[in-house]
Design a protein that fits this description.
heterodimer; A: mainly alpha; 10 helices; 85% helix; 0% strand; elongated; B: alpha/beta; Rossmann fold; 2 domains; four-stranded antiparallel sheet; 6 helices; 26% strand
Chain lengths: 226, 209
Amino acid sequence: MTVGAWAAMSLIVRRELCLSFRRPGQVLQPLVFFLIVTTLFPLSLSPQLSLLRDMAPGVLWVAALLSSLLSLDSLFKSDADDGTLEQLAICGQELSLIVIAKAAAHWLVSGAALVVISPLVGVALGIPTSAFATMMLSLALGTLTLSWLGAIGAGLTVGLRRGNVLLSLIVLPLAMPLLIFGANATDRAIGGTSPAGPLYFLAALCVFTCTLAPFAATAALRITLE
Amino acid sequence: MNSAPDGLSVEKVHVWRGDRHVLKGVSLHLRPHQLLHVSGPNGAGKTTLLRVLCGLLRPEEGAVAWRGLPILKSRTDYHASLAYSSHDPALKGDLTSLENLRYSVGLRRHLSNEELRANLSKTGVGDCADLPARVLSAGQRRRVAMARILASDAALWLLDEPFTNLDAAGTELLSLLLAEHVRAGGLAVVVAHQEIRLSGDVHRLELAA
């Protein structure tokens, strides 16, 4: 009796979540980094509400981007180090399914968690509560896209010893559009105008990477496994 | 030798690693009920050969076929019928032995926890089922990896130095399991430095440095 694609993917997601919760530090580190970096700004600048509100979208998005990068390195690295990545590559399931499941699980413990704690940061930066929905939606779309871009980068750099620096160099330029549209959407929501335009762009980028990146990441991983 | 449509056939495989010509035209044919013992000095390309046989490494020249089909064409089906153990046992230190088995064998076939435990007991690590793999000794980890091979119920076993770290009883057990697998119609390619003593049809391949 063989195992279907869905069963295999849900097994991988459960495996990744189980591993994350055995090492809670790895999950918490990027989140704590996100919280600390964003709260440093109101402390170092004047706590003037108008100034903070002008800065908030940029600070929020740069911090989210950097904190996501922190967790990307471990996406394939630990599996490659202990040999389980090879076993996953020859488990009799399509490698692309495994990559999709791993990236989804990675987003759940990094991106989704970041979205959940973002209102805390919103309060610290003086973002009005009316803009929280837009902020969270844009962050959700942005981090999901970033998880996929990161999967390509992580697949390419998994075999390298100092891969994380290279990973940042590969992923950050690709993430520029996210930064522009994400910050713009949040900015518009704070200012009270409709954020629909930049949000649509973010959604389009998200769909684009979700559909194409799994194949790119799988190809990258196959090359590094050789 | 003619090609073996029911087994594994390798035709003149060449692999270069950088400037080094590691595999220089290796050919082999393996049918059910046969075991191939690969030996040779360090750096002769034994592990490289196994990785080629797994489909993890694409040879520069030559072809590998399983049941008459090129393995890189029908990669997923081929992988479903092979079990590979590399020289590290490929266990997640943070997961228990049982979880390690569940999350790797579970991708191949549905097995209950009892069946997985039975496989662990068969290789002598039934007591370690609920211990994290990182606290196990190297020999115990090797036995858990053996249990994974057993549980995967694959026709083709590719084992890279499976006797490392095993005690005398473990070595005997592994020889017994190999003999059982071959008798039941399985195929095995085993990279090992020591002699493999079993009653079945054992072929030898000596790789030169």
